[in-house]
């Protein structure tokens, strides 16, 4: 089941002298208010995010696949709409000198800081995965998405956010992995925007 998280905005009005002037500055009915360009997480203001593609997990879509790029585009657009500054980084998540052992979160953040013009408050590891339900004569693949937020100062995990497609698309076994990814790419932007919305809501909710 798709798990959607919706953030809300609480507004407190202090009625005092000059109330009418204050109300005159409010947006007209039917217009969308500007979203606060940051979120709070563990007492730290999060405004700048570096997104790092994690294609090391089982079933992860390759970086150059249309499905992953569409997920990234949706994720970036939603964060920017919420007022965040977004940059993409490339960090080797596996340590080749240690038999490809996955690096610790603190190491990942340290390596992210070595990126050209790196400036961030949090690093987000973004993954698009393909899972498959099997039948006798066909397969039903579906997309999954994951976003892991790490605090930029020390690599502390600020939250892990998952999305699972509610759609199962029946395909013949002749449709290989590349074929599956191409067929599922149309749904990938939804994965990105939903993960970003969940991330923003999670950061605003504070420590997890």
Structure description:
With 208 residues, the chain is α/β, with parallel strands linked by helices. The N terminus is likely disordered. It starts with 18 loop residues before the first helix and ends with a helix. Strand 5 and strand 6 form a beta hairpin. The protein has 5 helices and 9 strands. Helix 2 packs parallel to helix 5. The protein has a 5-stranded mixed beta sheet. The protein is 26% helix and 26% strand.
Mean pLDDT across every amino acid position: 81
Strand order of the largest sheet: 4-3-7-8-9
- Proportion of residues in β-strands: 25-35%
Q: Structural class of the helix and strand makeup? A: alpha/beta
How is the secondary structure organized here?
Layout (H helix, E strand, L loop, with lengths): L18 H6 L14 E3 L2 E3 L1 E6 L12 H16 L3 E5 L4 E2 L5 E2 L2 H8 L9 E13 L4 E13 L5 E8 L12 H8 L3 H17 L4
Parallel strand pairs: 3-4, 3-7
Antiparallel strand pairs: 1-2, 5-6, 7-8, 8-9
